[in-house]
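pipeline stage [seq->struct] | target=Putative ABC transport system permease protein | organism=Pseudoalteromonas rubra | residues=444
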Amino acid sequence: MLIGYYFKLAWLSLKKTPLLSVLMIGTIAMGIAATMITSTVSIMMAQDPLPEKSDRVFSVRLSSWSPDKAYQLAKGEEVIPPMLTYMDTMNLLEDSKGLRQSAAVMYKSMVRSESQTDKEAKMLRFNSVNNDFFAMFNVPFLYGAPWSDLADREGAALVILDRQTNDRLFSGANSVGQHVFIGKHLARIVGVIDSWSPLPQVFHGPHHAHNLPFPLFTPFQFQVNNNLLSKGEMGWQCWAPLGDGTLETFLASECVWIRYWVELEAATQRGDYMDYINAYVEEQKSGGRFARENLSKIFNITESLIEDHVVEDDDFIAVWLAAAFLVACLLNCMGLMLIKFYGKGAEVGLRRAVGASKQHIAMQFGCETVLIGVLGGFLGLALAQLGLRITADIFAHLPAGLMQMSLPLVVMTVVLAVLSSTLFGLWPIYRAAQTQPSAQLKSL
């Protein structure tokens, strides 16, 4: 009963000093909003995109670079290429030592439906993958299904669209069995994926980690068979001249351009798969390749994000800076509380004189700090949502889901505001509770 009475007094107290109350609530709200905006973005950018099996999906990296120099050096240590050659990719696919395995390459081409003219074609980006890719990365299908193993091996002219492309070309209807032109190649649609935006997007490396997935998928061998190679998208790297520059020469070269992913049945099989990779490297060494020290590695999803510098310790510096700003705001709020509570010395003295204990005074002002924290928390939540909306508009190329607060963060926003305001209000409350009634009554 007394708690309700104290909250009523707290509300009346805030109304008596509106300017001071607005300053305290606004100060807390700004600190909370800054912290929540940076926390939301940092958490979303560093989240696990495949939490249900991120410990058993691996990026394979081989020491296939030049015998004369390292691929890269980082802090004095050699770094191996994140991509594989075509030869190594085909060898690993042929061996199929994992539960699932897939190449992953990007390219772009003009795309139109059969009913559209060449002028209506649009340049779109493609994911060049194997059929295991879809189950490996839990890609949801709206219509159809992945292509067959035979289509994978032959590089059949098949394509899977994303939902947005299907909406644009076929008005959202089930387009399985329809055809689209990929450049000059007529490809049959075998599936349409549902809305899917893993964050970060790990399978194409760091430069596309926070973009939406490319809208179309074709068999990896289809890209190779039809020489659909886009260096601007693929970013291949070579340590030896390509000779005559033909496709055959390129495929037989030591150029790295393919990211290779494997899913194991259990994370405990990692050692066995690494033994297979080491045996493969030794086999290639005996054939005159892989002249460098064997530094070949496999990285799970979390490790890949760190290795590719998608997630770094520096990413959370902004969170610490925002937290420091929140502390500064709370210190200012504490100063304002001291001013406010000091100005109520006469009221405290009168209440003490008629029998109120120090605990009662502390309870009264404690309820006031809690109320300030609650109001500051809700205002901070509104400011955080506004800030995230503005950030999403500025960085429109990023997925919308990146700028959305989760329910736990929403709850944490209000809880943090209440706890922090209460914590920083302890000193003003203590000072108010120590007020001597005799001294205050003499001043009346």
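stage status: PASS
auto-comment: The mean pLDDT is 87. The two ends are 30 Å apart (CA to CA).
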